[in-house]
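Inputs:
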Amino acid sequence: MLFLLLICSGLRAQAQDIPFIRKETLQQWLNADTDTVYVLNFWATWCAPCVEELPAFEKLNQEYAPKKVKVVLISTDFKRNVESKVKPFVKRKKLQSQVVFMDEPNPNHWVNMVSPEWSGALPATLVIARRKNALLFFEKQLNFEALQEALRPILQP
Amino acid sequence: MKKATALLLLFSMAFAAMSFLPANTGGGYKVGDTAQDFSLVNVKGKQVSLAGIKNAKGYIVVFTCNHCPYAKAYEQRIIELHKKYAPLGFPVVAINSNDKDVQPQDSYDNMKKLAKKKKYPFNYVYDETQEIARAYGATRTPHVYVLDKDRVVRYIGAIDDNSEDPATAKEHYVASAVDALLAGKDVATKETKAIGCGIKWKK
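Outputs:
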């Protein structure tokens, strides 16, 4: 967890850096004993509905930061495209949420970890609220209202 | 891993009542179900049904499309699967179920162009109503269903374990499933998951 926090905080300084994560990192997010609510969004630069919903996640990350909500945008682009496509995209869109690259060639090893309900289709979003023992999974495009709606019961004191 | 699974279970049980269900999962076939046949138009304007394919010992049904980078990455591998297994009785039938209004690149005309350009040796058919994708439970492209001759689903999932780089793929799930069926054996890996483009449902 500490390792994760280090990665996260280290990132802010150089916003265009995209760390590579493995399934162990997902595991840490799932297990982390924290009152931070993680919103993991699985996306790709070429995925039109993913790109469409990004502003909602950016807005959530910004407006809900005081409520300890943290958005992580997990790119599932091809590895060879991280430098040529993902980085320029993140820069062009001025993404403020943390962007990481899922460096696992075989999704069969980690898709079920995210949710047994996930077929692997993009976009997909997992909300982890460890202290509330809540996991919410969505295999569909979301908007800001839907995200707010999903978080409302979780963020109630 | 075990801990995570237990945790996931706990979480899902605790929050089952909240019923935040995803939109397009839950339905569709599981391994062991009998898949429905269909009659869909191929890129040559001909109606294609599984029953109409002569001498088939089974079918490799691939939900795919024109535009998706994952579908493109697997295109050559789908062609090769057909070239290898059609003569052995397991032809590929590729189905495009994407809505052309949501993704114009996946229109029937563009299917025709692509099939011609890439010389698709298999039937590439158009599921315009999306009825077949819904019946099968396909959610992404590519999404493969290996059926035996009685249309019993014997494998659901990815073609292999590396979409980006065929050369480093270690597990060839579809090929292994078909090999097993040809040898009269049980399929070892019956289900896998992969990242793919979500099927573009009508709005």
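Remarks. The radius of gyration of chain B is 17 Å. Chain B has one domain: 27-198.
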